[in-house]
Write a structure and sequence with these properties.
Blueprint lengths: L1 H6 L1 H12 L2 E4 L9 E5 L5 H7 L5 E6 L1 E4 L1 H5 L10 H13 L12 E2 L2 E2 L11 H26 L16 H4 L19 H7 L37 H6 L17 H6 L11 H7 L11 H17 L15 H7 L3 H9 L14 H7 L3 H8 L16 H8 L4 H7 L14 H7 L3 H9 L14 H8 L2 H9 L14 H7 L3 H8 L43
Antiparallel strand pairs: 1-4, 2-3, 5-6
């Protein structure tokens, strides 16, 4: 207010003069009074309100000042002097903008003969309406987001397993199923009366029925096509072969397209190309409780296989996805009884699936000891058959550390020095996985302990790289060469040091003992006494591997 400003006029002029570095004084009117006027709060309709109100609110003062810069111009350094009132007002406005003006003021330039009117500050924006508008805007965005999310939701029918999609052939008015013949009609009730009584309600779903699956317009699934839908369905032959027995009231016999052909064909294909013989080769259970005697269950499954073979089932039929035969499936599921029936019927023991595996490979990977014993005793089995990656059954047995299979294959005269596509032998894999029993059996039966693979790595090098301490020690005990390098010119000790296998580093740093005089088979007498019997030991003068009858 003007009264307070006039009471502290000296301090006001002194502080402002220090800021402008010049002399200031109040401008006087005609009566000699200081030109200090009240400053009222601005607002809409302020002129009409001033006429109505007697005492408007005073929030400040409007001060007219005169600048006397004669002393500033007389000083040597007069570059900071203000030439006019506009420059001084701009300087004060700049200080106020950067918040370096230590007292409130709204400067405005005015000359001696008058000046421009004082610019009033803009009224502040009300905060409450702004918050309300923001809340409404956010609510609208949220509602729009929910509506867009609902539009993106997709609806589809309920999924059912392959082969159990029912079609409403009866409601369509045509007959798509054959009449039950012989014992197929036992336990079935006449549905003609119930259909006539239901009338229009027949189109509604019942609790015990399954909804109709939409027909997909897809091409016939080819071999190895995993993304296509297999439209083939299980037939009665498949259910009998799998020994699946259900109650007549719950029997959901799937519809059959060509009833006469599929119903009598023992080689009918189901989903993934499974034939009834394939299902009988690995399925033995049913929905009913299993028999108490295990032998009785095996006899039942074996008799089903024999019946299918007598009816003309193809032994060499393959699945679409993996290319496995019934003998492959019997080996994979450890069905020794099924494998024996199939071999007695003349199944091919060397048939390969899509990955090149024979039933012997499958038996080794599945640890099916019974099927494995049957296959290695069959003279038509090729023990050295290779998979697509070149692995033999002996390589798989050494790599998977299957108990007893390495010794059995060696005793059956399998090639101990056969290599895969990487040039690795069974001894390479046994040393890499620290299979001590297989390593010892291979070393005792003439395996090349210093053989190099495609990367010039020896079994000792792989044992040092993988941290197989026991296998490395066994190789060193059999005088494996520790100075053979790989294709990067690294020694076994170097790779063990890189992998931080300090125990193997210390083992390789130990001096090698003197070599014992070799026996007739290249092994020391301390490791293999002369009178010891080593099954399957290969003698160079004997002509190599024992002859086997060619596969037939």
């Amino acid at each position: 207010p003007p009264e307070e400003l006039l009471r502290s006029s000296a301090d006001f002029l002194q502080r402002l003069s220090g800021i402008l570095r010049t002399s200031l004084r109040f401008r006087l009117d005609e009566n000699g009074q200081a030109m200090v006027f009240p400053y009222h709060r601005p607002g809409p309709g302020s002129e009409s309100r001033n006429r109505r109100e007697l005492a408007p609110e005073v929030i400040g003062s409007v001060v007219m000042l005169e600048i006397d810069n004669r002393l500033c111009l007389q000083s040597p350094e007069n570059d900071h002097c203000f030439p006019d009132a506009q420059s001084a007002a701009d300087y004060l406005g700049a200080l106020s903008a950067v918040e370096r003006l230590d007292f409130p003021a709204s400067p405005s330039p005015r000359g001696a003969g008058g000046g421009e009117p004082l610019e009033l500050p803009e009224p502040s924006v009300p905060l409450l309406p702004l918050l309300a508008a923001s809340a409404v805007f956010l609510l609208v965005i949220l509602v729009l987001g929910v509506m867009v999310a609902r539009r993106k939701r997709e609806h589809s029918t309920l999924w059912f397993p392959e082969g159990f999609a029912l079609h409403k052939d009866v409601a369509a008015g045509h007959k798509g199923r054959r009449e039950p013949v012989g014992q197929d009609a036992l336990g079935m009730k006449n549905m003609a009366k119930s259909e006539s009584l239901m009338g229009e309600v027949a189109t509604d779903w019942m609790d015990t029925e399954c909804p109709e699956a939409k027909r997909l317009k897809v091409e016939e699934p080819g071999v190895g096509a995993e993304d296509t839908v297999d439209c083939r369905q299980w037939t009665q032959h498949h259910l009998v072969a799998a020994d699946i027995r259900v109650a007549p009231a719950m029997a959901l016999t799937p519809p059959q397209g060509d009833v006469d052909a599929d119903g009598m064909d023992v080689n009918v294909r189901g989903p993934d190309g499974f034939t009834p013989l394939m299902l009988a080769s690995f399925c033995g259970g049913a929905l009913e409780p299993m028999p108490t005697e295990e032998d009785e269950a095996e006899d039942t499954s074996a008799s089903i296989i024999s019946d299918l073979i007598c009816q003309g089932a193809q032994l060499g039929a393959r699945t679409d996805r993996t290319g496995e035969t019934a003998l492959h499936l019997a080996a994979r599921y450890a069905r020794a009884d099924a494998a024996k029936r199939l071999l007695d019927a003349g199944a091919d023991t060397n048939a390969q699936d899509h990955s090149g595996r024979t039933p012997l490979h499958t038996a080794v990977t599945a640890d099916a000891q019974g099927v494995f014993q049957i296959l290695i005793r069959n003279r038509s089995t090729d023990l050295d058959a290779r998979m697509a990656d070149g692995s033999t059954a002996l390589i798989l047995a050494a790599r998977l550390a299957v108990e007893g299979m390495v010794e059995e294959l060696i005793a059956s005269h399998a090639d101990v020095n056969a290599v895969d596509e990487l040039g690795k032998s069974a001894l390479h894999w046994a040393a890499a996985v620290n299979n001590v029993e297989a390593t010892l059996a291979l070393l005792k039966n003439g395996a090349n302990k210093d053989m190099q693979d495609s990367k010039e790595e020896t079994p000792l090098f792989l044992a040092a790289r993988e941290g197989s301490y026991e296998a490395a020690k066994l190789l060193l005990d059999h005088f494996a060469n520790r100075e053979i390098t790989d294709h990067l010119d690294r020694l076994p000790r170097d790779v063990a040091q890189e992998r931080l296998h300090q125990d193997i580093v210390r083992l390789l740093d130990q001096p090698s003992g003197p070599r014992s005089p070799h026996g007739p088979h290249g092994l020391g007498p301390l490791l293999c006494p002369p009178g010891a019997f080593l099954p399957g030991l290969k003698v160079a003068q004997s002509g190599g591997k024992k002859s086997r009858r060619p596969p037939g």
